[in-house]
Amino acid sequence: MKKPFKKEVRKFDLKLILAGNSGSGKSHFCGTYTNGPVHFYMLDKGGEKTLEKLIDSRPKENPLSVDIFSSASISFSDFWTAFQQDEKNGLFTWLAENNGLLVLDSATNANKKAIKEICKKCSITPSGIGKKLDMKKGMAPPHWGQLLNWMSTLISAMQELPCATATTVHLHTLMNSDQEVVARYPSVNGQFRQLIAVDYDEAYLLETRGEKHLIYFKERNKFEAKSRVFSTPYVKNFTMDDIANAYLKGDTLINKGGIKK
Questions:
Q1: Which end of the chain is flanked by fewer CB atoms within 10 Å, N or C?
Q2: Is the model's pTM score more than 0.90?
């Protein structure tokens, strides 16, 4: 006789991808999580300055820590080695045990670092533009395949961690000949741009309008935001704590339509 399916007691272990243009509040939103410790892998230049504004308001028992990988001298392999060492040292298990959050900020810059490293190793120019002695032009299919492998491995690793994770990504806007927006999708290269959002159950779009910060859980302005948890179309001026608490309580319609006053 099979055991009947029952709801498990929830813990905050959501795997999120947060998309938005520069300045939309992705880093800040992740830093508003105070129900547990937060660790950032910061690959965006200057991103740590956003986090500095949040330090004084955090509870001391739930610290915010940052590993900075934004320097041009740091390669994708350097970052990946540090990621693997943190796993070996038990960082992700510790975050899970303490209701913590791991943030990759951002996948867009991780993608750029991977391209730069592949091009350097294979002696090719990233875009095939210009001439350089002893350099080949452009990335060939094997190079794009390597990029896809590296990025897919990274995102899969983030999704398989025992703790909650948030991956930020910038947006690319595709326009037709009439300058009409056809689609907006994660700003990464090759086949990975179609796969990254598909790999996540929770893909949110962040936008800023004046002093209002909005998070969309449904398709918005040609970006396929989605959620398997929340049926609310959007929320306003929410923190990561609000999202975590709603998830733990089993809420789906946050504040009856998503507007937080």
A1: N
A2: no
